[in-house]
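step=encode ok
step=design start
structure_in=
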């Protein structure tokens, strides 16, 4: 259940008025009149995921991969980037540390 609360400040009214709520904040301040509205609403359940169908689909894909029915259609860089990047970094750092052509 959710609750929304709105408060509006109105100009001070005479002391005999029965509208709103009067608050005595301090002797130097005038009485303030607040108008309050409260709205209550029941919570609604959202849609739930279909986990059983998802798990079944994932198990089916896993079986196909194990049997070799599904090919890995990623590019060469997508498959082997973790081997290529360290080699390139090593060559770049090694080349920057000892520049050739100087005496």
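sequence_out=
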């Amino acid at each position: 259940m959710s609750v929304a609360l709105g408060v509006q400040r109105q100009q001070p009214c005479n002391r005999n008025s029965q509208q709103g709520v009067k608050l005595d904040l301090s002797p130097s301040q005038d009485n303030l009149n607040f108008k309050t509205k409260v709205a209550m609403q029941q919570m609604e359940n959202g849609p739930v995921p279909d986990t059983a169908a998802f798990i079944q689909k994932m198990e089916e894909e896993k079986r196909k991969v194990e049997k070799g029915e599904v090919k890995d259609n990623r590019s060469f860089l997508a498959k082997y980037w973790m081997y290529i990047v360290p080699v390139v970094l090593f060559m770049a750092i090694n080349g920057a540390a000892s520049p050739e052509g100087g005496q």
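step=design ok
step=annotate ok -> The first helix runs from residue 51 to 67.
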